[in-house]
DNA sequence: CTGGGGATGGGGCCC
DNA sequence: GGGGCCCCATCCCCA
């Protein structure tokens, strides 16, 4: 249900839409200047630049590496790379602030690595073969792309090694960089045509301790504004700029066809792909509808499906929803399901249960907040939420604690509070046995990386304890055995196994990923599948794994028969870990 | 990292 | 069927 939370923070639908801007401006109590954030602006700019790069539009820089050519934009490269900043004199206090380079030969950076770094520059996504990690690290160091270099070192376990560099070494490397930049600059100023053929053979590996930060900071993937979408929908029909024509001619003169390499194409696909998403994925732009779907998928991954790619899921909506409801009823949740006609949202196709609930749901799309607090002007999408909000002004706290003077605004606050009195912590981590009073705290605990310490409360299982019949296999004993699965199982129990296996270092293994990027990759894959299937075709393994991964999560989270009782959750988690054990044992036998 | 408060969106029941 | 009210799950934010 929350699979997309990381990449899809709650949409601020009231802001980007022009008709809502007026509402914002008219909000009482907001005199003077107003700030209207467009959180998707930076990502859209980057995406447009990437489109231009792929189309060869407005490119004013060609990078070459061992025969491969990559068209790019100097401004982007200067924003990403300290090396290019200095090369172009674009660094703060720099010289002419632009330079006149058109071709830069970087034979010291492997083509695939350069390709990956370029892709990173335009998408904030680093996609490289795991076998090419060192090349990328080397390239990132050479070009002064610090965040990529740091990530590669982390992955390669060379953090300490890199940090162990002496200041003297870094100084010498820094000087080498300066010399390299100066040399490149001097020659290039002399003859731009000569630059095409010039080989920078004396590039010295450098470590630039820059403070580069991602040019596209994490921003919520929110719906694009209609205006931006209309722009995006227009094909690129602009004629090449004179500079572009010159550049193209130059490329032809140099005997090289224009080469916009796609990441991961060709030989680089041999090994297991390492796909690392830096910040948010920028592989493509979702349409407004799909954005809304994505937004909805925060809560219901299957239900919010309006695009063709997800039609299968869409057709299953009514069944799924009704089944879930029926299952909830059958599970003895308490409330009897009222016979009512579900309504389907025309925007996201989501099935809304309950008569009269569709308008309420639609406001989540439009951003309309018709209910305004007369005291502070805050607006709400729902009247009942405003009513609760008004309690803050009236001081009404209708939920008193029977055990103490505390009173609460919400019934669930009281419920949480009561658990403090009772000391009840019904939500226990099946692995470290840490107990929580609130389910969401346990979920947070499981999702985070806090659950990494080896279990200490219970002894390790005996090797054959389960087989010799001395154990009855009940849940408690099973839990003890689960603890013996080891730290790896502990940390991996809630991660798709393929991801962890990817860390084996094998070049042919599955992709290695950071756990926190699971959802991001999943989203990126889906977006890629929807908007750039051609590129996705280059990632067969990645695509399949991504979908498997996502389906796995959905299967886990969309189980129509699941209940949210602590006991049932423990059972499910125990099952997960049990499967983990089974897999481990199979591996041991092998 | 955890505990706690608050916000948000969906579903059930009722009028 | 529309809407109010309530409960619930989940998330975010802050200390």
TrEMBL record:
Superkingdom assignment: Eukaryota
Region: Disordered, residue numbers: 162-246, 314-343, 444-480, 550-590
Bias (Basic and acidic residues) ranges: 162-172
Gene3D superfamilies xref list: Classic Zinc Finger, Potassium Channel Kv1.1, Chain A
C2H2-type domain: residues covered: 343-370, 371-398, 399-426, 427-454
GO terms for biological process, alphabetical: positive regulation of gene expression
Coiled-coil annotated residue ranges, if any: none
Residue spans of biased composition, Polar residues class: 173-184
Keywords per UniProt: Metal-binding, Repeat, Zinc, Zinc-finger
UniProt key word Transmembrane: no
Positions of the BTB domain: 59-130
Biased composition (Acidic residues): 576-590
Low complexity: compositionally biased ranges: 208-231
Bias (Basic residues): 191-201
MF-aspect GO terms: DNA-binding transcription factor activity, RNA polymerase II-specific; RNA polymerase II cis-regulatory region sequence-specific DNA binding; zinc ion binding
Pfam family membership, one: zf-C2H2
Name of protein: Zinc finger and BTB domain containing 7B
Organism: Labrus bergylta
